[in-house]
Amino acid sequence: MDFILPVLAVPAIGTLIGYLLGYAAIYFKVEKDPRIEAVIALLPNGQCGQCGFPGCAQAAGAMVRGEAPVGACTPGGAALAKRIAVLLDLPPDDGEESVPQVAVINAQACDGCGRCQKKCNFDAIIGATRQQHGILGDDCTGCAACIAICPQQAIELRADPQLTPSAAKPRFDVREASYV
């Protein structure tokens, strides 16, 4: 009979702790703004820091709270700023149109040290140690993280030939667009 009390006490204590944790989860629940998650999904999430925030989640929170402009993400460019403005129901930033840029490696100056490849958050730089490196233009966001780390100054930003318009095109009217 002495062994029944300890055997029943363990499940009873477990049940009590379970109820307390469930109550604490409901009582201390923190509501998140769904707009922050939507802006995070739009951002490139490379944590490059060009916007002045340590990561894209912090930048998205600042954009939703109005502490940062919708065009703060330099790698995203004007197109991303317009999408975020539509999402947050803000007027579009009609400031200076930025041209999307990508990094380009000077073949004669690259010694293949590999520092740029390690620094790239988007895996846009390819190459082996002590061999010339290259940039995957489709993956490069133009964040310029590789430029600062290159000891030979062999990397520079240039206008992205795939995204730079060669002829005048009709302007995109943000008020008529809808993004989900």
UniProtKB/TrEMBL annotation:
Record flagged with keyword Repeat: yes
Pfam families noted in UniProt: Fer4_21, FeS
Stored Gene3D superfamilies: 3.30.70.20, Electron transport complex subunit B, putative Fe-S cluster (1.10.15.40)
Keywords: 4Fe-4S, Electron transport, Iron, Iron-sulfur, Membrane, Metal-binding, Repeat, Translocase, Transmembrane, Transmembrane helix, Transport
Transmembrane segments: 6-28
Residues in 4Fe-4S domain copies: 31-90
Protein name listed in UniProt: RnfABCDGE type electron transport complex subunit B
Organism: Acerihabitans arboris
